[in-house]
Amino acid sequence: MTDSLPIHGNYRGYYTKRPSFHDPRLALIPSNIFKDARILDIGCNEGWVTCEIAQQLQAKEVIGVDIDDGLIRAAWKRRRTVWSQRPRISSPSQPSPSDSGDEQKPKRSKRPRSSQGEEKTKNRTERGEQLYSFPAAFEHMFGPLPIPPAELPGERSQFPHNVVFRATDWLKEGTIDDWEGYDVVLALSISKWIHLNNGDEGLLSFFQRIFSVLRSDGIFILEPQGWETYHKAKRMDPGLKKIGDSLRLRPADFERELLKVGFRSVEHLGQTGKGGLHAHLLKALVYELYSSNRLPACFGSLPEMIVPLMKLKAVGG
């Protein structure tokens, strides 16, 4: 998909607008929910958040999906870049011939316990080890380092093998990965675009599909954009304006609608950023009241359900 206008929020260079290498929104989310989890990142854009979760937060598997195949190609490239630039540890240097065994070893200095821990992490070169990275200039000249195949079973759940990307209109088509279900589903900064492109019913269907692919005790993180941001977005395209003018649901209504779906409580995780980079996240706990209705998304939509920028936890079996 190569629309000249980003009517789905599919902005190029989106993450270059953010001042930090690490996405500040992730700091609002309890990191333990990602550990050993299977995660779906909807609207992953160029894959920065997806790769950060896969590499830094010990996720077992992360699937990033986006409607824009150009962004998905950029996400695969981002995966290789992160792999190339990750810090590596060089092997300890071999002892030189002058290092004889009968040479008196230096006495260990007595340090307070508090400083011993700092000494371990302060300078690896004392053990003949060095941290180094593949220079970014080399990647520019020669391309990123190749990713070796995963040869051992445990390597499949380690970066970069634990992250994949799919180009799909997830609301309408889903992905083959949905069959196994997810422990965590992320929908960061995309609810406005789904709302403007698909109307109130489309947004409700989106949350219904998310609910249907969440495992028991699953969590949904949603970042709803403010209603004031809709006005600028709908001026981008006549189709967006037509649908936007017909909308009755507001972001403030999402919490109520999600509770109708089965989410039993909503917790506001906080907010970060300013201006156009302002983010507001919520956490919602979900109780699985109607297990017979929790079918794979491919079987069709479920009863009404909704969520604001929040974390939804489905409890029950």
Automatic annotation (TrEMBL):
Organism domain of life: Eukaryota
CDD domains: AdoMet_MTases (cd02440)
Start and end residues of each Bin3-type SAM domain: 23-292
Major enzyme class: transferase
Bias (Low complexity) ranges: 84-99
UniProt-recorded name of the protein: RNA methyltransferase
Name of a matching Pfam family: Methyltransf_25
UniProt record similarity statement: Belongs to the methyltransferase superfamily.
GO molecular function: O-methyltransferase activity; RNA methyltransferase activity; snRNA binding
